[in-house]
Amino acid sequence: MRPDHSFKGRQFTAEVILWAVRWYLMFPISYRDLELMLQDRGVAIAHTTLFRWVQTYAPEIEKRIRPHLRASNGSWRVDETYVRVKGRWMYLYRAVDSRGQTIDFLLSAKRDAEAEKRFFRKALGQPHTVNPRTITVDKNPAYPCAIEKLKEDGELWRRSRLRQVKFLNNIVEQDHRRVKRLVRPGLGFDSFWTARRTLAGYEVMAMVRKGQLRRIGGRDMRAQANFVAELFQIAA
Questions:
Q1: Considering the domain boundaries, does residue 5 fall inside one?
Q2: What is the pLDDT of residues 4-42, one digit of tens each?
Q3: What b/e sequence results for 4-43 when a residue is b if at least 16 CB atoms lie within 10 Å of its CB, and e otherwise?
Q4: Which domain holds residue 30?
């Protein structure tokens, strides 16, 4: 196994960095709150450094966790919510299955058929997803266009059934609250790429807390910490 050099040149140990990043991504705290929490543990660090850690390691944690997720089922519930980026509202497409397990997410500046096609292509390409039997969405007229095009291109199973029934999407609408709760302390994002990296971390750690990791419970914090540490070849 090749040594992991992800933390090479950092002033702090990998254990401290992963602890800080995991906590920021799991709980509704600001960078300044996390700075004070670390000071209480004897670790003096600026909130700007914590921001840089999250921007560097949140997408890396997401990439490394993806292959270890449990398979989702074929009943997809798709919806979009709003995220403020540099004073503008942008669209966060999200999907869960009928059990509430996260399928995928995509941040987009636009809410149209092209954005929806990108989202479905991204979701279908994940190792833990299957081609859906049913796709439940709201009354947004762009969804039927996107679904039809994906079927024509052979990217989506032709027998996948689209259901535009709003009340059936309560599962995903309730699940949006997880993201909103985490975003609120930060008062929005300064750029699209900052938002994208941070949201990737929020979403993948939410998957972990939902119990989507194979052989690791959603409430077993010690096992989760050990697992993330092992992904980077360190001891938690």
A1: no
A2: 788 888 889 999 999 999 999 999 999 999 999 999 989
A3: eebbeeeeeebebbbbbbbbbbbeebebebbbebbeeeee
A4: 14-68+191-231
